[in-house]
C-alpha cells in the first residue's frame, strides 16, 4: 500500500471536517478498502476511521416502530441486536462473509461501496429504508445508482439507516462458490400496502427491484403467483460462476423461496 | 487390538504441537541481518515482444539497491527441465529456454520482467512502478487445438511449432487398434476436460538467500519439497556454482501438493542477487503472485474411446489428449502427461490393446506441472468416466462391469509399460460395498426424493504408480535424475537416534511416522527417535517428497540403514555378552543371548560404541550408518470409492452426502496419518470436481486470480468421510511392504463425484452424458435444461 495519514475522530462533525482534506477517504471496517489499498488500487491521502464515533454505532427501535442502524455498526452487531426487532435483516447480516468480516465490516461501508453482489443493498432497497447522511435523508430507491455507484457526494458520510419493519421478510442468498457473496440474493419484504422485492448479485446494473414480482405478490402472496414471471437475462451478469440465463433463473427460484419462507 | 506405539500405531503427530501453537519455523519467519527485499515486476499481458525496458528512474528511487532485468542474466543458464520426453517419431521434445527474467518476450501474465531490490518491500514496489516498459502486445495462444494448427502464432519464435512433443504409448500399430474398434460390439466415446487447478498451499512461496563474502558460501532458505534437488539444479544448470559452496534449507513448509517440487526463477534470482548486491535478499510471494507464478496443475483436453465385446469385456482403449504445459517447461512438466499419465491408462482392467496419444502444448499461460496425483488423476478421470458411461449405455451395473474386467492375476504386465506386483481389486471392492452400505442406497435415494432432491451414487476405481522410481527405468524413459532416496541413522551415545532423511515433510507427518519404524525395529520408545530433514548441510543426498514416495523409498533407505546399525550393535553386544554374534537377539531394546537369560540393554551398547573401552578390536567405534535405496519397481496403491450426492433440481446445486474410500495401501505404519492423507486428498478431489477452476479469458488474463473467484473447498463443502484400509496386499519389493497414500484421495475422488452427479440426473429422467469439472450449479442446471 501507499502511505497515508490516519485519523480516528470521535464525532461526526470532526469526521466531516477531516474528510474535507484533499483525497481523504472514510474508513469503515476496512473489509473492502484495505484489500484495495494493499493492491495499490487506491491512494487516499488520509483515512478517516468512523469506528470511534459512538453516535454512529448500534441498533435501536424508534417510536414509530422503525429500526435504525448506525452507519458504523458492524454486521455482527446487527446480526445479534436486530434479531428481535427485525429478524430478516439480522439474518442477512449474519450471512455476510465469515466471523472476521462480520466483526469489522459495517453497514455504511457496505452500502457506500454498493458492490453488485453485496447483501445489504438488497436488504436496504427491499425494505424501502432511508439512508441518513451528515447532510440529508435519501430514500433507498434514489440511493443505489448502479454497480459501485451511489447518490453519495464526495465526503458525505452515512450516519445511519432507518428501516420500516415489514410484516414478514426474508433474504434468500445463493452463494457464489468462491467469494461466497451472493451469486443471486433476493430480499423480499411484505408490508400492509404491498410487497417489495430487491435483487442483488444478478444484474449488471447492481441491486434492483423486480417490480413484476412485486405486483404479482402484492395481488396474491403465494409462491405460485410467480409461476409465469421471467426475468430478462439480457442485463444479467454472466461470468465464470454462472451464465446470464442461470442468474435470471435463480432470481425466480430465490424469490419463490423467499415467499415460501414468509408464508 | 490397535497397537499403542511402533508400526501400526496411530501415534499422535508430534509436529502438530508446534504447527498448531504458532511455533513453526517457516521460510518467511527467517530474517537475515541486513536483508534487502525484492519485488518482481511481472507482465500484465499474456504475450508480447519487449521493445525496451527503462530502469533509470527506478534506480534513483529511495532505498533502491539494484534493479535487474533479463540482460543481467545473459551469462547464466535458464530454468532446466528434468525430463526429456522422446516423441513418437523418435525426436526429442522441443525445449525452449526459460530465462530467470524475461528476455525478448513475455509469455504469460505473471512472467517476471524486472526485479527491484531495495531496503524495504514498499520501496521496491514504488521503484518497480517507475520502470518504463515498451511491450508490443501479440495475440495470446490459449486454445490448445488451435495452437497445434499450422500457422498458429508461436509462443516461442525459435521452435517449429507450439507442440512440445507428440507422444504415444502402447500399441503403435494404428491398423491393429482400428481393427479392434471395428470388431467391437460396442464403443463408448467421451470428450472431456480435466480442469486446470491452482495448488494454493496455505504458505505462499518464499526465498531468502545470503552470500558470505569471507567464505564464499551461499545459503538459500526456500519453500521446497526437495532441497537437494533445488541445490543440484540451481548450481549445475542455472548459476554454475559449486554444490559444496551452497546450502539449501527448506524449513517448515506449509503445504506443497507438488507445486513446491520445482526449481523456480525466484530462488535462483535471490541467490544470484545476494552476491550481486552484497546483501541478503528476501522474496515472499503475495497470494496474487502465487496465482500467476506457482506452477499450475492438470489442464488436459481428451477424447477417450472404449471398445467392448458382446460379453462386455473391454477389448480396446484409445485416448487422444492435448496437455497444456503453459509458456515454459517447468521442472518435471514434460513427464506428467506422459510417463505419469499414459502408463496408468490400463487402470484396474485387463484391456489387452491400449493406445495413448498425447500432444503437449505451449500456450501463453502459467507453466503447468505436477499437482497432487500428477498425471494419474487425469488418467483415472478419463478411464473411469468412460467405463461409467459404457455401463449406462449398456444398461449394466457399473460395479459388475468393473468387476468383470478387473485384473485378478499378479504380477500383471500392462500394455502400457508397467508391471503391477500385487493387488486385490475384487477384495477392495467388497470392502467398499460394505463400508459404503451400498445395499442401503435405494432407501436413501427414496428419502432424498421425498425432499425434492435427486440422489446419485458414483463409483470409481483407481490404480496409481507411486514410490517413484527405479532409476534405471526412469533413466531409459528420459528422466535426467535418479529417483532413489537416502537416510543416515545416527545413534547417539546415550541411545537416542537422529535419522537424517532425504524425504521432506510438509504436512505428511514424517516426523511421527518415520520414528515409529526405527523405534519398532529396535524396540525402544518412539520419543527416542527424531528425524532431521530439509537441510542439505545435514542430510544425505535424497530426492525429496512427491509422488507418494517418502515411506516407500526413503523409508526403505531408513530401514536398510537401521538394519546396518542393528547388525553392528549386535557385534558390540556379542562382545559385551561374550557370546557369538549369531546368537544375539534384539527385542524390546534388549540384546540377549538366545536360550539364556544374559542380556545387555540398547543404551549400554550404544554407549560402548562411543566409549569403546571394552570393545571388539575389529569393529569401528561409533554407531552411524547410511543407506541409499533405489526401488526395484513402482508401488501400486489401488482402491474403490463411492460418492453419494444430492442435486437440487431447481438450482443445480450439488451436495456430497456420503463419501466412502476403500484403499489398499499395503502395510500401514500409522493408520491415523493415512486417514488424514486420504481425507485431505479427497477434499482436494472434491475441490476439483465441484469448485476449482483456473480460467483464462481470450486475452490470456487469469479470470480466477484470487480467492474471490477461485473456489477452494471449505469444511462445509465436504462430508465426513468413511475410510477403510483393511484391504492390504503388501508391496512385494520394499522392506516395509508399503505403497504410499498421499495422492490416492485426489486421484480417486473426482470421477466418483462426477459419476454420482450424472447418476442423480439420469435417475431424475434427465439424459445427461457428461458435465465438465467443476460441476458447478450453473453447469448442472444448464445440462439439465439443454
Ligand atoms: C472475505 C470477505 C467476504 C465478504 N463477504 C460478503 C458477503 O457475503 N456479502 C456482503 O455483502 N459483503 C461481503 N463482504 C464485504 C463486507 O461486507 C464489507 O464489510 C463491506 O463491503 C464494506 O464495509 P466496510 O465497513 O468494511 O467498509 P470499508 O472497506 O472500510 O469501506 C468501503 C467503502 O465505503 C466507504 N465508507 C465506509 N463507511 C462509510 C460511511 N459510513 N459512509 C460513507 N462511506 C463509507 C469507504 O470510504 C470505502 O469507499 C465480504 C468481505 C470480505 C473481505
UniProtKB/TrEMBL annotation, chain A:
One Gene Ontology molecular-function label: FAD binding
Pfam families: FAD_binding_5
Keywords for this protein: FAD, Flavoprotein, Oxidoreductase
Coiled-coil stretches noted in the UniProt entry, renumbered to this chain: none
Superkingdom in the source lineage: Bacteria
Alphabetical list of InterPro entries matching this protein: CO_DH_flav_C, CO_DH_flav_C_dom_sf, Diverse_Substr_Oxidored, FAD-bd_PCMH, FAD-bd_PCMH-like_sf, FAD-bd_PCMH_sub1, FAD-bd_PCMH_sub2, Mopterin_DH_FAD-bd
Domain FAD-binding PCMH-type residues, every copy: 1-168
Protein's recorded name: Carbon monoxide dehydrogenase
UniProtKB/TrEMBL annotation, chain B:
Pfam family, one: Ald_Xan_dh_C
Keywords: Molybdenum, Oxidoreductase
Keyword Oxidoreductase attributed: yes
Keyword Ribonucleoprotein tagged: no
SUPFAM superfamilies, sorted: CO dehydrogenase molybdoprotein N-domain-like, Molybdenum cofactor-binding domain
Domain of life: Bacteria
InterPro entries: Ald_Oxase/Xan_DH_a/b, Ald_Oxase/Xan_DH_a/b_sf, Ald_Oxase/xanthine_DH-like, AldOxase/xan_DH_MoCoBD1, AldOxase/xan_DH_MoCoBD2, AldOxase/xan_DH_Mopterin-bd_sf
Aldehyde oxidase/xanthine dehydrogenase a/b hammerhead domain span: 21-139
UniProt-listed SMART domains: Ald_Xan_dh_C (SM01008)
A single MF term (Gene Ontology): oxidoreductase activity
PANTHER family named in the record: ALDEHYDE OXIDASE 1-RELATED, XANTHINE DEHYDROGENASE
Protein name per the record: Carbon monoxide dehydrogenase
Amino acid at each position: 500500500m501507499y502511505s497515508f495519514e490516519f485519523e480516528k475522530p470521535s464525532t461526526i462533525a470532526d469526521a466531516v471536517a477531516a474528510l474535507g482534506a484533499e483525497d481523504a477517504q472514510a474508513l469503515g471496517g476496512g473489509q473492502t478498502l484495505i484489500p484495495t489499498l494493499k493492491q495499490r488500487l487506491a491512494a487516499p491521502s488520509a483515512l478517516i476511521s468512523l469506528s470511534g464515533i459512538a453516535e454512529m454505532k448500534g441498533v435501536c427501535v424508534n417510536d414509530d416502530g422503525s429500526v435504525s442502524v448506525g452507519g458504523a455498526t458492524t454486521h455482527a452487531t446487527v446480526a445479534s441486536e436486530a434479531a428481535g426487532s427485525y429478524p430478516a435483516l439480522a439474518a442477512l447480516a449474519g450471512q455476510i462473509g465469515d466471523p472476521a468480516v462480520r466483526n469489522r465490516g459495517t453497514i455504511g461501508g457496505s452500502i457506500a461501496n454498493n458492490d453488485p453482489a453485496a447483501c445489504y443493498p438488497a436488504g436496504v432497497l427491499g425494505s424501502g429504508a432511508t439512508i441518513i447522511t451528515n447532510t440529508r435523508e435519501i430514500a433507498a430507491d434514489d440511493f443505489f445508482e448502479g454497480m459501485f455507484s451511489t447518490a453519495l457526494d464526495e465526503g458525505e458520510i452515512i450516519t445511519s439507516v432507518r428501516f420500516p419493519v415489514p410484516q414478514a421478510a426474508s433474504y434468500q442468498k445463493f452463494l457464489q462458490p468462491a467469494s461466497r457473496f451472493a451469486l443471486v440474493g433476493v430480499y423480499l419484504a411484505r408490508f400492509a400496502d404491498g410487497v417489495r422485492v430487491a435483487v442483488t448479485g444478478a444484474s449488471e446494473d447492481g441491486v434492483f427491484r423486480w417490480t413484476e414480482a412485486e405486483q404479482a405478490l402484492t395481488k396474491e402472496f403465494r409462491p405460485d403467483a410467480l409461476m409465469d414471471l421471467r426475468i430478462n437475462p439480457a442485463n444479467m451478469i454472466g461470468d465464470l460462476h454462472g451464465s446470464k440465463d442461470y442468474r435470471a433463473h435463480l432470481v425466480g427460484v430465490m424469490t419463490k423461496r423467499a415467499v415460501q419462507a414468509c408464508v | 487390538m490397535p497397537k499403542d506405539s511402533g508400526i501400526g500405531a496411530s501415534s499422535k503427530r508430534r509436529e502438530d504441537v508446534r504447527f498448531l501453537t504458532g511455533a513453526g519455523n517457516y521460510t518467511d519467519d527467517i530474517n537475515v541481518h541486513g536483508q534487502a527485499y525484492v519485488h518482481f515486476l511481472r507482465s500484465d499481458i499474456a504475450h508480447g515482444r519487449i521493445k525496451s525496458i527503462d530502469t533509470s528512474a527506478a534506480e534513483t528511487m529511495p532505498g533502491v539497491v539494484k534493479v535487474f532485468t533479463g540482460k543481467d542474466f545473459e551469462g547464466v543458464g535458464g530454468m532446466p527441465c528434468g525430463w526429456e520426453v522422446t516423441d513418437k517419431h523418435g525426436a526429442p521434445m522441443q525445449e525452449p529456454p526459460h530465462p530467470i527474467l524475461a528476455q525478448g518476450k513475455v509469455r504469460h501474465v505473471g512472467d517476471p520482467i524486472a526485479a527491484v531490490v531495495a531496503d524495504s518491500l514498499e520501496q521496491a514496489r514504488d521503484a518497480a512502478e517507475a520502470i518504463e516498459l515498451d511491450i508490443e502486445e501479440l495475440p495470446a495462444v490459449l486454445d490448445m487445438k488451435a495452437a497445434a494448427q499450422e500457422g498458429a502464432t508461436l509462443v516461442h519464435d525459435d521452435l517449429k511449432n507450439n507442440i512440445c512433443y507428440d507422444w504415444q504409448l502402447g500399441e503403435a500399430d494404428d491398423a491393429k487398434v482400428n481393427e479392434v474398434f471395428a470388431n467391437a460390439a460396442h464403443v463408448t466415446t467421451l470428450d472431456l476436460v480435466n480442469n486446470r487447478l491452482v495448488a494454493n498451499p496455505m504458505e505462499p512461496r518464499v526465498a531468502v538467500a545470503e552470500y558470505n563474502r569471507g567464505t564464499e558460501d551461499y545459503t538459500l532458505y526456500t519453500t521446497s519439497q526437495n532441497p537437494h534437488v533445488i541445490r543440484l539444479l540451481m548450481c549445475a544448470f542455472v548459476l554454475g556454482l559449486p554444490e559444496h559452496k551452497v546450502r539449501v534449507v527448506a524449513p517448515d513448509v506449509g503445504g506443497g501438493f507438488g507445486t513446491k517440487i520445482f526449481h523456480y526463477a525466484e530462488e535462483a534470482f535471490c541467490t544470484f542477487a545476494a552476491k550481486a548486491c552484497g546483501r541478503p535478499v528476501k522474496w515472499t510471494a503475495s497470494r496474487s503472485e502465487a496465482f500467476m507464478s506457482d506452477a499450475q496443475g492438470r489442464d488436459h483436453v481428451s477424447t477417450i474411446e472404449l471398445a467392448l465385446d458382446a460379453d462386455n469385456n473391454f477389448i480396446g482403449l484409445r485416448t487422444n489428449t492435448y496437455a497444456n504445459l503453459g509458456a515454459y517447461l517447468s521442472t518435471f512438466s514434460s513427464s506428467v502427461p506422459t510417463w505419469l499419465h499414459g502408463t496408468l491408462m490400463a487402470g484396474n482392467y485387463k484391456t489387452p490393446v491400449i493406445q495413448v496419444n498425447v500432444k503437449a502444448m505451449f500456450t501463453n499461460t502459467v507453466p503447468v506441472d505436477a499437482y497432487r496425483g500428477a498425471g494419474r488423476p487425469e488418467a483415472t478421470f478419463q478411464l473411469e468416466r468412460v467405463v461409467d458411461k459404457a455401463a449406462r449405455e449398456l444398461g449394466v451395473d457399473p460395479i459388475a462391469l468393473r468387476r468383470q474386467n478387473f485384473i485378478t492375476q499378479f504380477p500383471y504386465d500392462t500394455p502400457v509399460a508397467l508391471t503391477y506386483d500385487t493387488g486385490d481389486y475384487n477384495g477392495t471392492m467388497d470392502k467398499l460395498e460394505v463400508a459404503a452400505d451400498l445395499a442401503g442406497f435405494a432407501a436413501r435415494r427414496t428419502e432424498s426424493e421425498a425432499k425434492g432432491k435427486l440422489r446419485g451414487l458414483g463409483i470409481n476405481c483407481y490404480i496409481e504408480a507411486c514410490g517413484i522410481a527405479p532409476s534405471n527405468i526412469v533413466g531409459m524413459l528420459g528422466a535426467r535424475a535418479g529417483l532413489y532416496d537416502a537416510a543416515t541413522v545416527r545413534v547417539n551415545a546415550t541411545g537416542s537416534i537422529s535419522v537424517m532423511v532425504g524425504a521432506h515433510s510438509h504436512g505428511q507427518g514424517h516426523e511421527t511416522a518415520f520414528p515409529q519404524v526405527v523405534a519398532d525395529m529396535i524396540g525402544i520408545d518412539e520419543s527416542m527417535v527424531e528425524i532431521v530433514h530439509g537441510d542439505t548441510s545435514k542430510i544425505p543426498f535424497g530426492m525429496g517428497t512427491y509422488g507418494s514416495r517418502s515411506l516407500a523409498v526413503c523409508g526403505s533407505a531408513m530401514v536398510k540403514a537401521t538394519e546396518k546399525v542393528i547388525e553392528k550393535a549386535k557385534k558390540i553386544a556379542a562382545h559385551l555378552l561374550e557370546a557369538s554374534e549369531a546368537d544375539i537377539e534384539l527385542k524390546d531394546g534388549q540384546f540377549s543371548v538366545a536360550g539364556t537369560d544374559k542380556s545387555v540393554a540398547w543404551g549400554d551398547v550404544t554407549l560402548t560404541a562411543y566409549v569403546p573401552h571394552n570393545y571388539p578390536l575389529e569393529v569401528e567405534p561409533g554407531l552411524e550408518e547410511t543407506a541409499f535405496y533405489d526401488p526395484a519397481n513402482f508401488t501400486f496403491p489401488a482402491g474403490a470409492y463411492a460418492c453419494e450426492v444430492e442435486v437440487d433440481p431447481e438450482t443445480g446445486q450439488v451436495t456430497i452426502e456420503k463419501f466412502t474410500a476403500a484403499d489398499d495401501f499395503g502395510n500401514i505404519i500409522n493408520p491415523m496419518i493415512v486417514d488424514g492423507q486420504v481425507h485431505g486428498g479427497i477434499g482436494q478431489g472434491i475441490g476439483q470436481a465441484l469448485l476449482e477452476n483456473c480460467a483464462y479469458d481470450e486475452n490470456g488474463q487469469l479470470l480466477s486470480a484470487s480467492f474471490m473467484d477461485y473456489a477452494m473447498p471449505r469444511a462445509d463443502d465436504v462430508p465426513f468421510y468413511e475410510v477403510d484400509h483393511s484391504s492390504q496386499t503388501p508391496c512385494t519389493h520394499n522392506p516395509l511392504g508399503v505403497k504410499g497414500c498421499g495422492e490416492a484421495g485426489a486421484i480417486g475422488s473426482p470421477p466418483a463425484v462426477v459419476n454420482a452427479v450424472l447418476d442423480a440426473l439420469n435417475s431424475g429422467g434427465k439424459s445427461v452424458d457428461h458435465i465438465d469439472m467443476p460441476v458447478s450449479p450453473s453447469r448442472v442446471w444448464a445440462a439439465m435444461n439443454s
